[in-house]
Amino acid sequence: MRFTRPLAVAAAAALAMTAVGCASLSRPTDSGEASESTDWPTGPITMIVAFDAGGGSDIGARLLATALEDELGVPIVVENRPGAGGQVGYTALANAAPDGSTFGLTTIPGLIVSALDESRGAEYDVDSFAQSALQVIDPMAIAVTPDSDIQSIEDLVAASEAGELTATTTGIGTAEHIALLQFNEAAGTDIRPVHFADGAAPATTAFLGGNVDILLSNVGDIMPTLENGGARAVGVLAEERSIFVPDAGTSYEAGIEVMIGSSRGYVFPDGTPQDVVDRMSDAIGAVLEDEAFQEQMANAGLQPAYMDAAEYEAYWHEQADSIGSVLELIREEG
Amino acid sequence: MDLLDSIGQGLANALTLQNLLFALVGCLIGTALGILPGIGSTAGIAILLPITFTMEPTSAIIMLAAIFYGTSYGGTITSVLLNIPGEGETAITSLDGYQLTKKGRGGAALTIAGVGSFVGGTTATILLIVAAQPLSQLGLLVGPPEFFGLVIVGIALLVGLVGKSIAAGLISAAIGMLIAMVGIDPVQGLPRFTFGSAHLLDGISIVPVLVGVFGLGELLHVSANSITRPKAPKLRELVPTREEWRRSAPAIGRGTIFGSLIGIIPGVTATISSLIAYSSERRMKKHGHELGTGAIEGVAAPETANNAHANAAFVPLFTLGIPASPAIAVLMGAFLQNGITPGPALFQSEPLLVWTVIASLLVGNVLLLVLNVPLVGLWTRLLAIPFPVLCAFILVFIMVGSYAVNRSVTDLIITAVFGVVGLIFRRTGLPVAPLVLTLVLGPLLEQTLRQSLQISNGDFSIFFTRPMALVLIAVAILIVITSAATKRKRPIAEVILPTPTPTSTTQER
Fold first, then answer.
1. Residues 32 to 61 of A: which have CB under 8 A from any B CB?
2. Which residues are the signal sequence here (chain A) (predicted)?
3. Could you tell me if residue B329 is inside a domain?
């Protein structure tokens, strides 16, 4: 992949020249936008989604892309670059020209784990991106079988002291695994992970078949199983209750200060002009305000959680710190 | 009767002009996607998903489901006629299918495959109608230890696939297993054999390997050898002979059983159904030894099994809300987008929709049969294209297909490398089937073993204290012992030298 860098630079240069050319040719835009220093957006914007088309992350991103087209008035081209839990797509995103023509979906903890875990050999680090806006925080839910005695997070802690409990994850270093380690650390429990690296479906099957005691999953992904009566949520690892499972208490209510889930936001490659990043941030904010859009997201099991560029950047680094310390734990377990 | 009433209403609704049209469109798109290697049902459904947002939910789901099971029909065509399988399940079909084409029976093989798929798909759908609930419970009995047992049975079937030389078969199997080891280790999270490349962290995808070994390898081999290419069969040769029907019927029956049963287990891909159906045909007394040399059973059984599997895979979706395969997961996304949660509650909350979709599976299988069997003649005309031209087209399709899976240039390199590997296999007489088997089963073997041990906290007795796991492992041991015993009884000459029947060497070519 060595040859891509000069190519990217050349492409960036070419694009920058085109942008300048277009800027000088195009007529001044109307009122509000005329005050902006650059003429962004001038053409189609590529949104890199580091996951397969059709998955939960992709659906949320595609919904947003469609709405952003109306908001920004330019085509948004969704480009799926799946592979290595997002690492392939994130690499492409980090190496893209920082001229506002490319941005992408990133998920936490996935991106941060891949950047911090040295064995993954990522070409980027947590500072390779310019955070623009957060769209969704999908909190981690803890579910048990419907006939279980465990009714709350407190019951779960008590039960884990009484006997050995196991919980599903979707692999080492995934949101579920990190959530479990953080929960064990904070609650003093010793719930053992069973890793289903091939995804949520085998994990759910093993849980429904009674092979694993606890089903750990994002609220968005676990909803079908809950609605079908296959599982009952006893808690969410968040500060506030989820609108989708209002009966499940939060970790904070139980005095366990763990907040984790899958958070999905949008970033540009580092070095992109800040006003471009901010304007995208505002555009995403405007889309998320729209009620029809909120309903579309709710259908997909996604709870909107907007953060603007500054808030998202702070959240990003806060998460990087806490995930970094959990990765230490994983390494020690080794 | 309640059930008949429900399915009757569903059928009536599925047969409205609009829904019939969408089923037809889905079948056509599915067949077209299947013909292109690499662009499987998962990608096909995902790409078309956004289009369906504006459609009526029932029609949308009918169309997407038709794409899903339509692709396995399309994949058969290129596997049988050109030896370019697009996915694991059709790779199995090409083992005998392509040999049949060389003998001029390619048209007959496609007809049998079409009929077998219809029988398998329809039977599995009827099972879904009458016994979805109990079947889903059966699927749930398969936890990681049982899954491990099933994989061990699959690996044991290897002994039936190794061909004339056990050593050559094991070399091929070991190479497949080695390829399967590449990527992030599923339990420790450490990269293996990735050579520092992020593109290898996910492992090597099956599709580029298969189109490389089968498609590109075949092209290189044929181009370098001036082997006479199969000719396009004449019209009357498209119809299977009475003998071919007679031999296919039991194979179709067995394929239906394997596909329907294995299909209801979430997480097991159709390739495994195909493999098991094919391997079991190899173990049949009467014609088993002919498999690999162009035996009609070698097409009938796996083709039936994979389509039965595709339809049976709806059982866990409708009864448990679990997507059994990546393609079904995308299909489930389509349900959710339309505000419908697949699962048992759906039979109460949206009975008409569920029964219409299920009925559409029946309709779709009929549509595919009437679409594809008459078209067999057209497809076989592909062979009439002058070889240099066809070769160029195939090369383009191979490269597009392997690129399409992950949209990654690395996959193109992998395809090229495995094209050379395929050439070496053909030149040295190594069998390809064991490689496919371990490539597919390798990752499952590792994951299920380690998941089981995580559940039991490292105690190996979990494999012997759970009845179903124990039985499956015992079956595997039995297969190995009986195979070893029958091999020994045969005169040495027969094991080493090709039997006088249509030479077994053709299998390796």
1. 52-56, 58-59
2. 1-22
3. yes
CB contact under 8 A, A208 and B190: no
pLDDT tens digit sequence for B347-398: 777 888 888 888 888 998 899 888 878 888 888 887 788 878 888 888 887 8
Mutate to test the interface with A, among B33, B455, B456 (most CBs of A within 10 A): B455
Residues spanned by the domain of A204: 139-250
Does B452 score more than 60 pLDDT? Answer: yes
Contacts of A58 in chain B (CB under 8 A): 46
Question: Which range marks the domain in which residue B132 is found?
Answer: 3-219+236-495
CA distance A171 to B304: 34
Q: Shortest Cα distance from A23 to chain B (angstroms)? A: 33
Instruction: Give me the mean pLDDT over the B139-164 stretch.
Output: 81
Token pair belonging to A238: 């968040």
Between CA B181 and CA B436 the distance in angstroms is 14
Q: Which amino acid is at B53?
A: F
B318 contacts A43 by C-beta, under 8 angstroms: no
How many domains, chain A?
2
Give the end of a domain, one of A221, A250, A279. Answer: A250
What are the structure tokens assigned to B431, written together? 């069998």
CA distance A25 to chain B (A): 36
State the amino acid at position A132 in one-letter form.
S
Q: What is the dihedral of CA B302, B303, B308, B313, to 10 degrees?
A: 80
Residues of A in contact with B196 (CB under 8 A): 121
Q: Residue B233 and residue B212: Cα distance in Å, rounded?
A: 27
Whether this model's ipTM surpasses 0.85 comes out as no
pLDDT at B291: 80
pLDDT in tens, A68-126: 988 888 989 888 887 777 888 899 999 998 988 999 999 988 899 888 888 777 889 88
* Residue A235: Cβ-neighbour burial (10 angstroms; 0-12, 13-18, 19+): buried
From chain A, the residues in CB contact with B54 under 8 A are: none
Only one residue has tokens 């907007």, namely A306
Residue among B144, B189, B341 minimizing CB distance to A172:
B189
Structure tokens at B177: 């297993």
Q: In this predicted structure, what is the pLDDT of residue B487?
A: 61
Residues 6+ apart with CB under 8 A from B445: B148, B151, B152, B155
Distance CA B444, CA B449 (A): 8
Backbone φ and ψ of B241, nearest 5°: -75, 165
Instruction: Give the mean pLDDT of A263-292.
Output: 91
d(CA A41, CA A30): 14
Residue B337 lies in a domain: yes
Q: Indicate the residue of B143, B198, B339 with minimum beta-carbon distance to A91.
A: B198
Q: Residues A130, A277: one domain?
A: yes
Residue A122 is given by DSSP the state: -
3-state helix/strand/coil string of A255-286: CCCCCCEEEEEEEEECCCCHHHHHHHHHHHHH
Chain B contact present for A163, CB below 8 A:
no
Q: Tell me if A211 and B196 make a contact (CB, 8 A cut-off).
A: no
Chain B contact for A75 (CB, 8 A cutoff): no
Mean pLDDT of B296-302: 92
Question: A247-281 in b/e burial notation, b at 16+ Cβ within 10 A?
Answer: ebbbbbbbebebbbbbbbbbbbbeebbeebbbbbb
Question: Residue A148 is part of a domain; what is its CATH number?
Answer: 3.40.190.10
CB contact under 8 A, A83 and B190: no
Residue B502 belongs to a domain: no
The answer to the question of residue B225 being in a domain is no
Total tally of structural domains belonging to chain B: 1
Residue that terminates a domain, selected from A225, A250, A275: A250
Whole-Å CA distances, B214 to A263, B206, B416, B423: 42, 12, 11, 9
pTM above 0.80, yes or no: no
